[in-house]
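S.,

Sequence below, as promised.
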Amino acid sequence: MKPWEDVKRRRLRRRLIGYSIGTIAVTIGLILLLSNPAKPPVTKPVSSTPATRNAERTAALASLSQAVSTYLKDHQSLPVAIPKTPTQICTASSVDCRKAKTVDLNFLVNPDVGLQSLPSDPVGGQGMTASGYTIMQDVQGRLELAAPRAEDGATINLRTK
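The prediction came back faster than expected:
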């Protein structure tokens, strides 16, 4: 073997090892950065089309309506007063809900009722604690759930029996 070939081989080895260590360091740094628990959670990406978002809204209102019906069937009344005008549903704790003047339906997040979490509108609600969906009680005492941010001129609302 010629002496300059040995030098080239050593330089190549150093370059490869340096690159690998650099790659590992960057990867570890990214992992630590992305796994930082102090960071706020990543927001849900907005669905691609208005029709898809409207379908998500319809499904969310159906699950909310089912949860409210199940709760009413088991308990005969709701533990919160439902306003006579459309009011946003809260997605946070009851203290935050009162501050934001939203309706606290967190009691529905229960395996017996069927909700894992309160749904939020695909494009978000008004403020940090609002779901984007509203609830009200009509003159007959029925509850009406609505998605006021429905797109393409759609009206999405459901009434409980």
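The chain has a mean pLDDT of 80.

Coffee later?
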